Amino acid sequence: AGFFTYDPGFMATASCHSAITFIDGEKGVLLYRGYPIDQLATKASFLEVAYLLVYGELPSEEALNHFEHLITSHTMLNENLKRFLSGFHYDAHPMAILCGVVGSLSAFYHESIDVNDPRYREVSAHRLIAKMPTIAAAAYKHFVGEPIMYPRNDLRYGANFLHMMFATPCEDYEPGLLAEKALNLLFILHADHEQNASTSTVRLAGSSGANPFACIAAGIASLWGPAHGGANEAVLDMLEQIGHVKNVAKYVDKAKDKDDPFRLMGFGHRVYKHYDPRAKIIREVCHQVLEEFPGASDSPLLELAVKLEEIALNDEYFVERKLYPNVDFYSGIIYRALGIPRNMFTVMFAVARTVGWVSHWMEMMSDPANRIGRPRQIYHGQGVRDYVPISKR
Ligand code: CMC
């Protein structure tokens, strides 16, 4: 029984070889295919980064145009899929809808997918990247009771998403440049993060040769938890619960109390023992966005977040454990300023992370070393014993 290595949470297990994303958690470094995250976040477009993650190199202008054309040719949803979506309860959480509807794509594209054929794997990846914003926006429209909008293929990825969210059949929506820029940046920062829980889930599901749409639905389910992608929603709940700068110290004490389940949401990371490089970029943009959208201003929340960060970063408990703000700490404040409601925050994460999920799935499927993922266990149950008839128990 002692033969297997016991590694709960896979703290010390490398489950695969990968050439997609590199993290140095001690130094706070994050590279996509070798390119530093800050350069990509400030200089590239989301689909350019998607191409990079999926294919391994930055695209030429021609390759990018072709890729954008391929993606936009898959943005529509089958009408039956919309009917399926409309069956959800009116106040269903958009993550529940996303999980179900993306999983149902496997019923729409089942016969056409041969997971052993690279061409079909590629088409599935394109379909997923293209349809995810359409499904996400449709989940929102269902929630607010408005008609689902068709995608606009003349718009860029993020602008089209904002259009599908906020336009109605009666009124166009012109996303401002800063809103589009902020979304582009957030999507790039969330696009991949090597073997996190949801990506590992996608790989494990896919290792059996399962349909890619079902595998991505499994990834969405894993992302939903508050310890993972659900943290961005939990951060805003927490900031509102704290309510005022004067209460920050009390909540920091609560987070340190081992008898209290309260944790500082958006703080800490399995890999980063240094400031999360994504959080650093988001923090800056947060200030810019809130200046630009004074109407939707969440500056009291930002002020609270900054104060919380300051107190925690100077507290022995957090310093000793190397707990810093992570990607989710400031992202919710930006989403809210853009008019995106809280229950959509994790959905936004899922839209962006789809690129990482499909990149990892494709990498795994083309890896000759790929075999079914099948961890073992350390059994500590009963030894062998004889069945006792119910009358004698
Ligand atoms: N507040 C208070 N204490 C914390 C926190 C926190 N947010 N995070 C970790 N700790 C403590 C923890 O109690 C433990 O203390 P001790 O050594 O005394 O037992 C120590 O720090 C190590 O924590 P851990 O739980 O063993 O670390 P982990 O690698 O298993 O968990 C984590 C990482 C991200 C799940 C955790 O830090 C956490 O729950 N953070 C809050 C949720 C969050 O922000 N999640 C988003 C992660 S980044 C984006 C993403 O993955 O989607």
TrEMBL record:
The active site is at H269, D328. PROSITE patterns: CITRATE_SYNTHASE. Gene3D superfamilies: 2.20.28.60, Citrate Synthase, domain 1, Cytochrome P450-Terp, domain 2. Keywords: Transferase, Tricarboxylic acid cycle. It comes from the Bacteria. It catalyses: oxaloacetate + acetyl-CoA + H2O = citrate + CoA + H(+). GO terms for molecular function: citrate synthase activity. Pfam families: Citrate_synt (PF00285). Pathway: Carbohydrate metabolism; tricarboxylic acid cycle; isocitrate from oxaloacetate: step 1/2. GO terms for cellular component: cytoplasm. One of its GO terms (biological process) is tricarboxylic acid cycle. Belongs to the citrate synthase family. NCBIfam families: cit_synth_I, PRK05614.1. This is Citrate synthase.
